[in-house]
Amino acid sequence: MHRKEDDIIHILSIATGARGKINGKEVFGILVDIDSIRNVSAPDIQTFANSLENKLESLRQSNKEKFFSCLTKEAIQEMGPTYE
Fold this sequence. Notes:
The longest helix is centred in the last third of the chain and has 25 residues, at 45-69. The chain is 37% helix and 39% strand. The chain is elongated. It is of the alpha+beta class. It contains two helices and three strands. A three-stranded antiparallel sheet has the order 1-2-3.
């Protein structure tokens, strides 16, 4: 499935029956993959290069928001995230 928001297209893929290990414990569930693509138009390469860092960061943030909105708080806690 895909969703267009402004100049970003998010492509969501879901696979059931996924198996893996977290901290040596076998887990089963759903695999969620989100690809985010930004449509870019720039009059020249210099304009493109000057805006690249900000555009990439906003694309990364948008992708992150989409991904974490697919997860419950319990799912996130079960994965045992660590923050530095």
